[in-house]
Amino acid sequence: MSTTRLEPAMGEPTNTAATGIAPRSDRTDVGLADLEAAVRARVLRLFRGSFHLRHVDAGSCNGCEAELKMLTSPYYDLHRLGIFIATSPRHADGLLVTGPVTRAMRDPLLRTYEAMAEPRLVIAVGACACTGGIFADSPLVVGPLEAVLPVDVYIPGCPPSPLTLLHGLLLALDRVEGRTR
Question: What domains can be seen in the chain, in order of their start residue?
Fold first, then answer.
């Protein structure tokens, strides 16, 4: 069985000087590597493995989802910290909600929350989930997430950047650590 290797196209630069993009090992300094190891160790200690989040779009414009997707890209690599997006609420340690809670999503959101095991961690992502945003006065919107569920961590922004999301997830770990003491 042979493997296929992708080669650069004719005339495409292949060295770092031509592309301006340094290899990952050159971009990571020692302090960041130490921080990464500390976060990974904390996740292992708190969750006995990894931290799984269930994402629910309660009625957003998909701006927050685009930024969430960036966290799983090779640049931010959320998985290296032991944080994953779960496909089932039964496997999740936390609920990540984007968008204002619409009337149509209120019951599915409550069912998702109730399906999660205790202790439940709820994270509101984006201005709409935190305050209702520009949709707060809409007759189709119940309101911000806190009108339906108890919120543990708020991550503001419209949309929040991947670094802001990462910072909020680290705050969520602090919240969990505070509950276990």
Answer: 49-180 (3.40.50.12280)
DSSP element (H, E) containing 122: strand 121-125
* Residue for token pair 């119940």: 142
Q: What are phi and psi of 177, to 5 degrees?
A: -65, -35
Alpha-carbon span 100 to 75, nearest angstrom = 29
Encoded amino acid at 83, one letter: I
CA distance 161 to 68: 9
SS (H, E, C) 81-102: HCEEEECCHHHCCEEEEECCEE
> Count of H helices and E strands in the chain?
7, 7
Nearest to 99, CA basis, from 144, 138, 66, 157: 144
Alpha carbon distances (Å) from 127 to 24, 107, 157, 159 = 33, 21, 5, 7
pLDDT digit string (tens) for 89-132?
999 999 999 999 999 999 999 999 999 988 889 999 999 999 99
Token couple for 106: 């209120």
pTM of the shown model: 0.78
